[in-house]
Design goal:
Structural class: mainly alpha
Helix content: 55-70%
Protein name: MEI1 protein
GO biological process, one term: meiosis I
Number of helices: 15
InterPro entries: Immune_Signaling-Apoptosis_Reg (IPR052133)
Order of helices and strands: HHHHHEHHEEEHHHHHHHH
Largest sheet: 2 strands, parallel
Shape: globular
Strand order of the largest sheet: 1-2
Organism: Haliaeetus albicilla (White-tailed sea-eagle)
Distance between the termini: 47 Å
Number of strands: 4
Mean pLDDT: 88
Strand content: under 5%
Radius of gyration: 20 Å
Length: 302
């Protein structure tokens, strides 16, 4: 089925959302809900379809061309299509790297536009924001090095020009600029305060991946980001949402991040003891799966 569905997608226009959105979802789940052997073959089929990759390029570009919805919570059919496109490309990036699959057509993407979608948001629906962050995690995990993706700075009438580093620190973080890193961190901190569970999990995962990327590129910047005093205020706000707040998956993963990078000014020994006490008193069998995974990572880090 991958052959006819992927060929059908390649013949569509990027705004044929009624047909494209379920088709892209089918391709996405074909990648995820299969055996490793079949998964490798599925990746090869999709990455050999030039028409499909050209269509995905146009779908992603439409993210910046469309008018933002009047209500940020409203997910139109066009937005749903964009979500499917971003998630599918993120998965293709991940699996292309895992299996070292040959790519017949690269995607070209404006990194500044991707970062601005998270930094400035402009009434983006939550699911679209989560999908873009999932893509951002995929490129960060690969250090922006993928034969499937060509990162550019800004699009001009003459074509795409690569970003130029303006300092030694920017050169170390290339293609990210230092100001982009700190703007992204502030935006992620602000998004963490929202009570949407899906959004908070995506934000923490993005922050984890960003700090890991920074640690490889420039340890000083990574440790500076992890020890930002604003994190302390963010943690305080999250811990005052009610009972058993220390066992929220987002809080646990944040605390684990601060422990990993030894941010003693953010998390204290007293709070670590409180988490251990709450975990000891909790019925572990009744904890949600996300909480169990986060608690496991926290205990391993301790």
């Amino acid at each position: 089925l991958l052959f006819p569905v992927s060929n059908l997608c390649g013949k569509c226009r990027p705004r044929d959302s009624d047909l494209l959105q379920p088709s892209l979802n089918f391709l996405y789940w074909s990648l995820h809900q299969t055996t490793p052997c079949s998964q490798q073959r599925a990746v090869a089929v999709l990455l050999s379809n030039v028409s499909l990759l050209e269509l995905l390029q146009k779908v992603l570009e439409y993210t910046w061309l469309r008018s933002p919805p009047s209500e940020p919570a409203y997910l139109s059919s066009e937005d749903a299509l964009l979500c499917s496109g971003w998630l599918l490309v993120a998965s293709l990036l991940l699996y292309q790297h895992r299996y070292n699959t040959e790519v017949h057509q690269s995607l070209s993407l404006d990194l500044t536009a991707v970062l601005n979608a998270v930094i400035f948001r402009k009434k983006q629906p939550v699911l679209l924001l989560v999908s873009i962050m999932q893509f951002l995690r995929a490129v960060l995990r690969q250090n922006f090095c993928s034969s499937l993706l060509v990162i550019v700075g800004q699009n001009t009438a003459q074509g795409a020009t690569p970003p130029q580093p303006s300092s030694l620190q920017d050169a170390a973080l290339h293609p990210l600029a230092t100001w982009q890193v700190f703007s992204l961190v502030v935006s992620l901190q602000n998004l963490m305060v929202h009570k949407d569970l899906l959004l908070s999990q995506a934000v923490v995962a993005c922050l984890e991946t960003l700090v890991e990327y920074l640690y490889v590129k420039n340890q000083d910047v990574a440790l500076h980001v992890a020890s930002q005093p604003w994190h302390r205020f963010l943690l305080f706000a999250l811990l005052n949402r009610g009972q058993k707040s220390l066992l929220q998956p987002g809080v646990l993963r944040l605390v684990t991040l601060f422990l990993k990078y030894q941010s003693s000014n953010i998390i204290s020994q007293k709070e670590i003891s409180q988490i251990l006490q709450e975990a000891a008193e909790a019925n572990l069998a009744e904890l949600p799966e996300a909480t169990s995974r986060a608690l496991h990572l926290f205990l391993c880090q301790v």
